[in-house]
Known about the structure:
By secondary structure, chain A is mainly β. Helix content of chain A is 13%, strand content 35%. The radius of gyration of chain A is 35 Å and the shape is elongated. In chain B, strands 1, 3, 7, 8, 9, 11 and 12 form a seven-stranded mixed beta sheet that branches. In chain B, strands 16-15-14-13-19-22 form a six-stranded antiparallel beta sheet, with no helix packed on it. The chains are: A mainly beta (436), B mainly beta (339).
Amino acid sequence: MKKFGVFLVVFAVFFSFAVVISAQEENTDDAAADEATEQAVEIPGSVDMTLEMKPDKFVMPANFRGGDPDRGLVNALEDVFYEQHEHSILYKEDAGEVAEGASFEGDPNITWDTKVKDADGNFQTVSSVNTNMAGNGGKFFAPGEYQIGNGGARQVGGGEGAEDVATGNEGDEDGGAAGGNQTDEALVGENGETAEGGAKTVTANQAMGVLVHDVTAPDIWIAFQEGAGNIDMAATEQELKNKMVEKIVANLGRPFSQKAEEYEDASYVFVDEGTSDERNLEPWKKTARLSVAGALFNDRGAPKFETKTVESKTLSEENMTRQIHVAGGEDEALKGVFVRRNVPFIFAAMSVDNGNNRGSTAEVACRIETADGKEVEKDGKAYLFRVPNYPREEYKDQPEYFFVSKAMDKSGNLTTVRMPLYIVNIQAAFEGGRNQ
Amino acid sequence: MKKIKAAVFAAVVMFGSMVSAQEPPQGAPVDLEKTPWLKGVELSPYPTDLTPTLPLAIYLENGEAVPATVTEDVPLVLVADTAIFDNDPPTHANDQEIPNPRWDAAAAVSWYFIDWEKNQNFNASTTPGLAANQMIVIPTTPTGKGAITCHMARRLRYDAPEPGRSKVSYANSSVGRDVRVLDITPPLCGLEISVEKGKSGSFWPVEFPPDKYPLPKTANVYFSGGLFDAVDKEIVVEGLELGANMVVAAEQVAVKVAPDAKLSIRVIGGDNYKLDNAKLKYGICNAGGGEPIPVGPINEETIDLANLELPEKPYIFVDATDTTGNRQILFVPLSVTEK
């Protein structure tokens, strides 16, 4: 029995040694065998690839914003730079892992492909960049579901497979090159060589899903319009809304004009992501652009177009949501909205969001309220104030009114406006515009 | 007891050796001088997820193989045949069983044309509206060594080990077909002409519309410079057939020089693949069109008109041929008038 134990140990050591040698010398043994048979191992048509987003503090957790942790998509933020990297045995120095005895003929060809999922669930190409690098970086400029794909290819020689030809016809696997009536001989180029005489193109690809989250507050347009005489204010309000629906989409949230004279019918407050160089800023740098246009934004009723930037603030650190708040007041760029006593007026507000590429509108909640937050109701089909409250020092006994508006996108980004509403005595010196 | 210990030791050694033999080869450390494309890559090339790579075949719409030689600008309708479009997803990835696999999204498909001579890649896709596994590929770049490649990925969901949980990976499918692309576009050569102590100008053809098929190809010829009364502007002669008989009419534009002018001439432009420099000719000929019959020296950088006996309607010509044999001859009238 003692001898059997010794035999067992010796057998084990020899066996393990043999297996290790077998594993380590697989290449050389196989190469020798190949040489003997003068038959190289078949080169595969494609090989595996790995791909992932590089770790970054802005790669958000799997359950970001309450998402399904098993969704399997990388949670990312719009307008933030991310890096991806990929790898494959196709990118190694030595082709031995692609096929025994094979060799690479030249550098790999590497293309980074970004596709976005459309409403039908199909992926449409956003960009396709041939970098020939296995690392890549860039920003997603709009929220949505994306698929990052990497397609790699490299010429591999030294094995079988360089001449294989795939066809759709069964039994035609080993057929030569075909193409209607054309033959290779007829089409051979300058050197008399055919493409299948050399190396074979081997491919690899891998993909990664990325859910890009909206961190931009929605754009808001607010329009105020005074009425007089027998104007149907309800119809006017609907007309105003229709005009905004049409123009806010067509102008991607930007003011439809910067000329004060084009705001004679109605006065507007625009809050949007800004000019092209102001858009797509990183979340922590985001601003909005406030523009006021028309005659109702100063106590003299003078038509004007003025614009300035407004900084954003973090609404929720955890959810990475932003808020744009426009506060009107005596010391602010937007002093308030000035309407005339005994003149009915209406207002309406619309918003667009970059969450759907500003492709559709949503009506925005807005109202007039007192300082204590109590809503002021319409007088019939329009708002109407009979007692002035401006200048404030002359009408301290009259209530303060505020116009408030709030638009929130599906992601929780918020745009809010709160500005004083002043009722001006009709005897006051209105100098310009239709108020005169 | 000793026997048991020995047996356990033997089993551990055997098991360890077998595991060692099954590990994927790691290869040499990355040498960025030899593999610069791996700069910044900190990822293993070996997938750990259940991410199957499926075979893919591409062939012509009629079921025939992709020809080894295709023709520039001639569309090919290609079909991709892969299990990535099957109703049922693959059940194994690298011999590992995928637990309860189901597709989780539509397949994303990309087609490319690679010019291996430049290691440059072009989007091969053109016409939308085909089936997901079809694509019209137009190889617009002649090359002696190219490939049409197709890459696909489709999101796959499968059961995670934890009850009620699932994981996501991608089924991938890609292939390349090596092709050479035959050049069918004639060269696009022009001339830059300087008159000694006088004006200068240049003319050159531009293929328009680009990548036109079926043949014939056409080109616009641009004239610029004081020699053509086109300073800070271009005169365009539109719609000439690109080939061996490109004749600019005298009433459109001409090279206007004095009888004793000395012309310095240089060829500009080239071919979209390879110009056959041995066949390149330029000079003055006796008529516009046909095989140019030279008047005076050929391929001389300087031509002294005073030394030539010019015909009644001379032309300046450039005759260029590419390595495939496509030929372009452009004739521009030479108007010789006293100052």
